[in-house]
Structures are given as structure tokens and as C-alpha cells.
From TrEMBL:
InterPro entries: 2-oxogl_dehyd_N, 2oxoglutarate_DH_E1, DH_E1, KGD_C_sf, ODO-1/KGD_C, THDP-binding, Transketolase-like_Pyr-bd. Gene3D superfamilies: 3.40.50.12470, 3.40.50.970, Multifunctional 2-oxoglutarate metabolism enzyme, C-terminal domain, TPP helical domain. E1 component of the 2-oxoglutarate dehydrogenase (OGDH) complex which catalyzes the decarboxylation of 2-oxoglutarate, the first step in the conversion of 2-oxoglutarate to succinyl-CoA and CO(2). It catalyses: N(6)-[(R)-lipoyl]-L-lysyl-[protein] + 2-oxoglutarate + H(+) = N(6)-[(R)-S(8)-succinyldihydrolipoyl]-L-lysyl-[protein] + CO2. It comes from the Bacteria. GO terms for cellular component: cytosol; oxoglutarate dehydrogenase complex. Homodimer. Part of the 2-oxoglutarate dehydrogenase (OGDH) complex composed of E1 (2-oxoglutarate dehydrogenase), E2 (dihydrolipoamide succinyltransferase) and E3 (dihydrolipoamide dehydrogenase); the complex contains multiple copies of the three enzymatic components (E1, E2 and E3). It comes from Methylomonas paludis. Its EC number is 1.2.4.2. Keywords: Glycolysis, Oxidoreductase, Thiamine pyrophosphate. Belongs to the alpha-ketoglutarate dehydrogenase family. This is 2-oxoglutarate dehydrogenase E1 component. One of its GO terms (molecular function) is oxoglutarate dehydrogenase (succinyl-transferring) activity.
Length: 939
């Protein structure tokens, strides 16, 4: 058999400097011969000619490399070359590789012609010992652009054309060889010949005409009104159109887009097909808000959806609603996409594609970008790759200099963390933009990974239309004010090439303006598709009251069946002793031999919903076990480390459970789950914080989406947030879920805030969330110590004969006529009050629990108070400081439903800047004082 070493002796192309590349080619040949050039395939086939088996090529290559290093003179002599010629060939190989690695840093891809990057010596032939005398010498290229050998001057020309023109490509940092060399072959292979497709070039010009035409029209018609125009970045419209049409060729069925303000109105009109007449009505204040919205929102935050024809069939486009918090839309879009993919089923990642459009400063500066990228390839949050488009205005937000906006070379460098390829493209070269968009979409569809298009452009009018950008960027705007627009540059190119004439250009511009003036749709024709509509799935949940009925009780047989299925483990599955004890106790609970604890009831809620055919999804940083080791929805085999989720194996007809321990992220994960829950109304979607106050890290999601999405956009969500809450001496950061913040956000029945205190209550609360025709976010102040509290238990009959109780009245057998004081409370403090009252035998005091703080259960509350005709005093008792907790946000509800001669007073901790003390002894002293004040204060 001919070995690689013998082939090296015979072939001038094979030298030590190329050994690694040859090894790669040989690996490609072994796996798929059609992926390499014909000349290399013939060489490798010669190796195999008549050979019974392959000699391990890695061994041969290592021998050759060792020889090349140790005895270069002998190797050169063996091959018939001088040592100098071998060094020259090796230098060319290194130069080629360096252009692939760093060519993007000297690319001519800035439409302003400005660059703060100095020339790189290691991209010059002289750096490798090559001289002008070598320019006409033939060298092996290693397959550059499909050509095996060419003169050095031609090699340099091809390298500069491929890697230093209008496109600068970052991809050599990718570890995966297949994806890296796929990109190389695409960049160095045959490119789209736009010159032979005049109709394509005319279409690109038409898109630029539309993008520029809309902005100029609005600028004249609505003088001084902010619209965050696309001027200077009109090629975004080219990217999106190319992306959508090529996605259609790949049989994509849906694209979900997320973007902030810049260019949003242009995308709505010229891509998604929003009626210009509707947009004009929004400018003029005559157009109504979205259905179901109360306050509405500004026009450049609004979402839209439509169906667009493509070569592969219609694609449904959705542009997500977006607040001013820029990149926070990223995880929301990803969550919505994940929900759609799950709904689609098998091959969902090929059918639904996320596209995120960023600003340059925001992409570099906003931490949520990193969180979303970090989620991209995890099991819980993978959506099969996202196409990222960065509108790189080179100015950041307002006055930002790149040196002040980031510490990285590029605004896109954060994407390197997931080894995403990044294509830096000149926005003033439409054909390069279209070409790189094709590669980007193909990469996503082939490898199901993120990819970034960095559209290098500028802002013609600054931050907004009322801005004077020259005040802060005088040098930049001296260039911009003399720069032709992208459309003008491309139109001139087509005029010079004879593709169009001036009359055609004028006609195209006038036709677009005529459509705008008539308020007619100017995008690609939309397709009516009444059958497909996510909004229709939500119609039955609009305009419903929180009192909507729901029968959440479950038969005893169903409870016992579910528990038994949860107990059935695979053969040889060994539980941890503590978990085994939990499972044994649950057997007793199901038989009524032991009162139910929280973990049993919660798992029964999930199991019974799954048996009813509903899907559930739970995520959080320790969701499987539960932060306080109560849930155990994911079991681990102590012998093998393998996990097992019993909720998946209840019955063949059950719903689908998704239970994932998430990465260490709050904003990203909560945003994702909000997006997921706002897309699928019939799935129980739950996010649990390790501690309730960890939700602080996702406050923007809570403020801008969860609490106000319906009011602004008519967007419903049934998301459940489980926030561990309770003052147990664990310090300021592990006590409060900041219930006051949620209550402050409550209005218009926008969400539910509940403080369940028994296992039965959480059982019915979770089931109620799906079973009634009411979809609002549910915030649960969930317990910590109550998970195992001796009094926080329930009977089986509480699951089979009852439902969720918004208010729980006095349960001890007290004489109603003897009650003169009622203590109102919510959460864990109830049990402290109860134990002390029983111990002190205070039979004139009744304790009422408010289990639903909002919407306030007025009728239930009044019914309980009416039981006590001699009531004189009401005390609101809470563990939280007076300026926190529910007191200030709820006391008006109490006053509204009591007689004037009944006094109301507060019992709790004094106002404090921090939620809780750090010293445990001080905590106990304060807790005792809270209870004593509630039971004895004012007497």
C-alpha cells in the first residue's frame, strides 16, 4: 500500500507546513469523498488502490511532521526541492491561513471609509519572508477558491477579494471543523453572479427605493415626530427580504422577529406588510390601540404578524412587541419560538426560525445579550440557532464613541462565546449584503447554531429626528452629509452597467410614492390565512373575570393512581436515602395514613393536569429537586447518576412535561418563559426563583412584560412565578420576594398575587391556572419552612372536595359572638400567630388569612368579617417592614369593606431600608414582637 509518506515524496504540494491541512482533507475523504476537490480525491484514491485497509493517517502525518521539524534539509532533498523552497511554500500556507483568521480586520466594509484599526504586518507577504520576486512563483494553495496552484500575486488578489472586501468574515475561531470548513468553502467557492441576474439587481434596487422612500415620506409628512428612522441602514430591508425568501426555499413555516426602535416602522411597512394608512393614523393619533389593550403604546413599540409568499410556500411572520428596554426582547422571542417549535412537534427547529435585530451599542453593552447567547445551546432553551442582525451605526446610542461603548474590537465580540460566525458587511454594497445573508441563513439551517450579520452602516439623522448629531460627532457627520445614500450608490451602479435607465429609476420611485399617498400596502403581497392564527387561540380568554369558575377537585382514585405511577421506578434504580424517605411518606399520604405536605400536593397538581391532557413546563435554577428539597420531580439514580422524571410515565395519553434545571440567569430565563407562556395558552408554564428576591435580577421583564403587556399590547400570559418568601432569619437577601413591588404593579386585574399557606391551596391554585378560562400571570409567594411545618398540612379530602380559597377564615372552634378582634395576615406568619394564640388561649381573637392579595377577594373577605357581629378591632399583621409587604398596597381594600366604627391598625416590623436583619437572634426577637403586637397591642 502506498503510504502518505511516500506520496509526500512524490508530490510537491505536500510539505510539512501543510500537514495539518492535508490531514483534514484526508479525514474529509474518508468520510465523504465528494466534499474535496477532484485533484485531491485522485491523490487519496491512489493511496487506497488495492489496499485491504487504511493505514491510520494520523500516525503517518505525525511521523512526517516530526521529520519536517527535525530534518528539513533531508526532507527537501527527498522531494527534489531546496530547503528554501519548502520554507517559501510553508510561508504561503501561513499567509493564506492568516487572511482567513484576520483578514476581516482590514476589510473595506465601512461605508464611511473610516477605521481606527491600523494595518497588520502579519497580513503582508514580507512578514513571512516572501518578496516581490516571489509574486509570479507558483505555489500550492491548499485548495484556495478551489484552485490547487497559482502565482502568489493571484493568491493575494483572491485573499483580498474574499476576506478584505465588502465582507469581513470571522469564523476561524470555531472549534467544530465541519462548520468552520463549510463556511470557508462557501466564502471561497462560487459566489452568486448578480451581473447575470439583472432581475435580482432590480429587485434589490426596488427594496432600497422602498426603504428610503418611506423614511423621506414620513420626514416630510410628520415633521419633527420621532420615528427612529432607518436612513443610513436601508440594507436591513434587503437582509430581511432575502432571509425570508431563502427561508421559504428551506421550507421554513414561521419566522419570529425581535427588534428595538431603529428601523421598526420601515420593517413593519416594507417587510411585514402593515398598511401605511394605519401607520399614518398612529402618527396622527386617529388609530385605535390593539384589541384588549388599555393604555396602548407608541407606534415604534408595536408588533405585527402577516403571511408572506415564498418559493417554498407561505411563511408566517411575527414581529414581537418591544418596550424601550432594547435587548430584553431577545429571550422573549426565543421563548415564543420554542413554544411554536414544541407545538409543531418533530422538526420544529427547521420549521420556525428566530431572527433578532440589534443595535451595535446594545449588543455589546446589554447583559441580556450574553444571557440569551448562553441559553442558545442548552436543553431547556435551544431553538436551533438564531440569525442575529446588528444594525451597526458606529455611534452607539447618542454621543457614544466606540471606545466608550465597549472594551472589545467589535460590537459583536460577545457572540464569540458561543463560537458564532460573524460576517461584517458593508451596508452600501447591496449585493454583498444579499450574498452574506444567504450564507448566514444556510449556516443556521444546516448547523442549527447562532450566526451574526454585522451590518456596518450609519445614521443619517442621528439618534432621532429631532437630534443634531454633528453637535457630538462633528467629524463623522461631515462625512455623512456629503455621502450618497445606499440607494443612490446602487442605482448609479446599475445605470453604469446598463441594467436600468433614468426613466426606469424615476418611474420606480414615483410608483412607490403613489402607493404610500394612497395608504396602500407596499410590501410583497400578503396572503390571507384565516386557518393559521395564534391570536385565535387566545380569544376565549379575553374579557374574563378572575372569578371565572373552575372545578379543580380530583377524585381519590385519580390521586392514588398518579401517586402509584410516580412511585414506579425502573428496575435497579436506587434513590438517595433521604429521597427514598420522601417517596415512602408520599405512599402513606396517598393512602390517607399521613397528612399531605407541600411536595406531595404540588406533584399531584402536575400529575393530574398531565392526566387531563395538559402540558406543563417548569424551569428554574433548582426546579427538579426544589431549592428546599421538597419537589423531587427529577430523581437521580445513586448508582449511575442517570435521571428519571416519573411525571413522564403516567399514561400513554398524558400531556407532555418539560422539567429543566436552568442556567444561572433570571432575566434571560424569565423572559424566555414569558415568551413561551404568551404563545401557548393551554400549557402550565412555571418559573421558580431560588429565593424570591432573585426576581430582582429580572425586574425589567416583570415591569415591561408580565405586569403591563396586556395593558400596552393586549398580550395575555398565564406564566406562573414561584417566589420563595418568608422571614426565617436568613438575612436581607433570602427573606422577601418583595411582595410590595408586585402589588404596586397591580391594576386592571392584570395579574394575580397569591400567598398560599397549605398544600391543598397550592394544588388547587396551580390547577385553577389552567382549568378556568382566565389567563393572567400568577405570582406565588411560595413558602420555605412551611414545606415541612407540622401545621402546614392538608387532608386528602381537601383535594377531592374543595377548591382554592382566596380567603381562609378562622378554623378553630371559637364562639363568633365572643370575637372582638380579627387579625388579618398572609403567608407564614399565620402559623406563628396561631400557635401563640392557642398557647395563650386568646379565644376573643379570630385569624383570617388573605390567600389572594390581588385581585382582592372583596366578597370572600366581607363574608368572613360578617361572622363576627361584635367585632371592634382589625389588625393587619405582616412579617415585612411597614414600608414593604402588603400593608400600604392593600389597606384601602380593608377600609372599603368594614364599618366605620371598626378600627384598623398595623402590626409588624418598623419601616426599614433593608428587608430583614442579618442577626438570627435579632430576627427571633423581632418576630416575637410582631406576633405579640398583633395579639395584644392596643388592649
Amino acid at each position: 500500500m502506498t503510504t502518505l509518506l511516500e506520496l509526500f515524496k512524490e508530490t510537491s504540494a505536500l510539505y510539512g507546513g501543510n500537514a495539518t491541512y492535508i490531514e483534514y482533507l484526508y479525514e474529509q475523504f474518508l468520510s465523504n469523498p465528494s466534499t474535496i476537490s477532484e485533484s485531491w480525491r485522485q491523490r487519496f484514491e491512489k493511496i487506497h488502490s488495492g489496499a485491504p485497509q487504511d493505514t491510520p493517517h494520523s500516525v503517518i502525518v505525525r511521523r512526517f511532521e516530526k521529520m519536517a521539524i527535525a530534518e528539513p534539509g533531508r526532507l527537501a532533498k527527498m522531494q527534489g526541492f531546496t530547503e528554501q523552497s519548502v520554507k517559501k511554500q510553508s510561508a504561503v500556507a501561513r499567509l493564506i491561513n492568516q487572511y482567513r483568521v484576520k483578514g476581516h480586520q482590514i476589510a473595506a466594509n465601512n461605508p464611511l471609509g473610516r477605521s481606527h484599526i491600523t494595518p497588520h504586518a502579519d497580513l503582508e507577504p514580507e512578514y513571512y519572508g516572501l518578496t516581490e520576486a516571489d509574486l509570479d512563483t507558483l505555489f500550492d494553495t491548499g485548495g484556495l477558491c478551489g484552485i490547487d496552484r497559482m502565482p502568489l500575486h493571484q493568491i493575494l488578489a483572491l485573499l483580498k477579494q474574499t476576506y478584505c472586501g465588502s465582507i469581513g468574515s470571522e469564523y476561524m475561531h470555531i472549534v467544530d471543523a465541519d462548520s468552520k470548513w463549510w463556511i470557508k468553502n462557501k466564502l471561497e467557492g462560487a459566489k452568486t453572479d448578480f451581473s447575470s441576474h439583472p432581475e435580482k439587481r432590480i429587485w434589490l434596487l426596488k427594496l432600497l427605493t422602498a426603504a428610503e422612500g418611506l423614511e423621506r415620506f414620513l420626514h416630510r409628512k410628520y415633521v419633527g415626530q420621532k420615528r427612529f428612522s432607518l436612513e443610513g441602514a436601508e440594507s436591513l430591508i434587503l437582509i430581511l427580504d432575502e432571509l425570508i425568501q431563502r427561508a421559504g426555499e428551506n421550507k421554513v413555516q414561521e419566522i419570529v422577529l425581535g427588534m428595538a426602535h431603529r428601523g421598526r416602522l420601515n420593517v413593519l411597512v416594507n417587510i411585514l406588510g402593515k398598511s401605511p394608512a394605519v401607520l399614518f393614523g398612529e402618527f396622527e393619533g386617529t388609530h385605535t390601540s390593539m384589541p384588549g389593550a388599555i393604555t396602548g403604546d407608541v407606534k415604534y413599540h408595536m408588533g405585527f404578524s402577516s403571511n408572506i409568499a415564498t418559493p417554498g410556500g407561505p411563511i408566517h411572520l411575527t414581529l414581537a412587541f418591544n418596550p424601550s428596554h432594547l435587548e430584553i426582547i431577545n429571550p422573549v422571542v426565543e421563548g415564543s419560538v420554542k413554544a411554536r417549535q414544541d407545538r409543531h412537534g418533530i422538526h420544529g427547529i427547521d420549521a420556525i426560525v428566530p431572527v433578532l435585530i440589534h443595535g451595535d451599542a446594545a449588543f455589546a453593552g446589554q447583559g441580556i445579550v450574553m444571557e440569551t447567547l448562553n441559553m442558545s445551546e442548552t436543553r431547556a432553551f435551544n431553538t436551533g440557532g438564531t440569525v442575529h442582525i446588528v444594525i451597526n451605526n458606529q455611534i452607539g446610542f447618542t454621543t457614544s464613541n466606540p471606545f466608550d461603548a465597549r472594551s472589545t474590537l467589535y460590537c459583536t465580540d460577545v457572540a464569540n462565546m458561543v463560537q458564532a460566525p460573524v460576517f461584517h458587511v458593508n451596508g452600501d454594497d447591496p449585493e454583498a449584503v444579499a450574498f452574506i445573508t444567504q450564507i448566514a441563513l444556510d449556516y443556521r439551517m444546516r448547523f442549527h447554531k447562532d450566526v451574526v450579520i454585522d451590518l456596518i452602516c450609519y445614521r443619517r439623522l442621528g439618534h432621532n429626528e429631532a437630534d443634531e448629531p454633528a453637535a457630538t460627532q462633528p467629524m463623522m457627520y461631515k462625512i455623512i452629509q456629503n455621502l450618497a445614500t445606499t440607494k443612490q450608490i446602487y442605482a448609479q451602479k446599475l445605470l453604469d452597467d446598463g441594467v436600468i435607465n433614468q426613466a426606469f429609476l424615476s418611474t420606480q420611485e414615483q410608483e412607490y410614492l403613489q402607493l404610500l399617498n394612497a395608504g396602500e400596502v407596499v410590501s410583497r403581497p400578503g396572503i390571507e390565512n384565516d386557518h393559521y392564527s395564534y391570536s385565535a387561540r387566545w380569544e376565549k380568554f379575553h374579557n374574563k373575570d378572575w372569578n371565572s369558575p373552575a372545578d379543580t377537585a380530583v377524585s381519590l382514585d385519580r390521586i392514588q393512581f398518579c401517586n402509584q405511577r410516580l412511585q414506579d421506578l425502573p428496575p435497579g434504580f436506587e434513590l438517595h436515602p433521604r429521597v427514598a424517605k420522601v417517596m415512602t411518606d408520599r405512599q402513606k399520604m396517598a393512602q390517607g395514613e399521613q397528612d399531605m405536605d407541600w411536595g406531595f400536593a404540588e406533584n399531584m397538581a402536575y400529575a393530574t393536569l398531565l392526566m387531563d391532557g395538559y402540558d406543563i413546563r417548569l424551569t428554574g435554577q433548582d426546579i427538579g429537586r426544589g431549592t428546599f428539597s421538597h419537589r423531587h420531580a427529577i430523581l437521580l439514580n445513586q448508582l449511575t447518576g442517570e435521571n428519571y422524571i416519573p411525571l413522564k410515565y403516567l399514561s400513554p395519553e398524558q400531556g407532555r412535561p418539560q422539567i429543566f434545571n436552568s442556567l444561572l440567569s433570571e432575566a434571560g430565563v424569565l423572559g424566555f418563559e414569558y415568551g413561551y407562556s404568551s404563545t401557548l395558552p393551554d400549557k402550565l408554564v412555571i418559573w421558580e426563583a431560588q429565593f424570591g428576591d432573585f426576581a430582582n435580577g429580572a425586574q425589567v421583564v416583570i415591569d415591561q412584560f408580565i405586569s403591563s403587556g396586556e395593558s400596552k399590547w393586549g398580550k395575555l400570559s398565564g406564566l406562573v412565578m414561584l417566589l420563595p418568601h418568608g422571614f426565617e432569619g436568613q438575612g436581607p437577601e433570602h427573606s422577601s420576594a418583595r411582595v410590595e413591588r408586585f402589588l404596586q404593579l397591580c391594576a386592571d386585574q392584570n395579574m394575580q398575587v397569591c400567598t398560599p399557606t397549605t398544600p391543598a391551596q397550592i394544588f388547587h391554585l396551580l390547577r385553577r391556572q389552567l382549568l378556568r378560562e382566565y389567563r393572567k400571570p400568577l405570582v406565588v409567594m411560595s413558602p420555605k419552612s412551611l414545606l415541612r411545618h407540622k401545621l402546614a398540612v392538608s387532608k386528602l379530602t381537601d383535594l377531592t372536595n374543595s377548591g382554592f380559597l382566596p380567603v381562609i377564615g378562622e378554623l378553630d372552634e371559637l364562639d363568633p359572638l365572643a370575637i372582638t378582634r380579627v387579625v388579618l395576615c398572609a403567608g407564614k406568619v399565620y402559623y406563628d400567630l396561631l400557635e401563640t394564640r392557642r398557647l395563650d388561649k386568646l379565644e376573643h381573637i379570630a385569624i383570617i388569612r388573605i390567600e389572594q392579595l390581588y385581585p382582592f377577594p372583596a366578597q370572600h373577605f366581607k363574608t368572613e368579617l360578617d361572622k363576627y357581629p361584635h367585632l371592634k378591632q382589625i389588625i393587619w399583621c405582616q412579617e415585612e417592614p411597614e414600608n414593604q409587604g402588603a400593608w400600604f398596597q392593600s389597606k384601602h381594600f380593608f377600609y372599603n369593606h368594614i364599618d366605620r366604627d371598626i378600627t384598623i391598625s398595623y402590626a409588624g416590623r418598623v419601616a426599614s431600608a433593608a428587608p430583614a436583619v442579618g442577626n438570627y437572634k435579632t430576627h427571633l426577637s423581632e418576630q416575637k414582637a410582631v406576633v405579640q403586637t398583633a395579639l395584644y397591642g392596643g388592649q
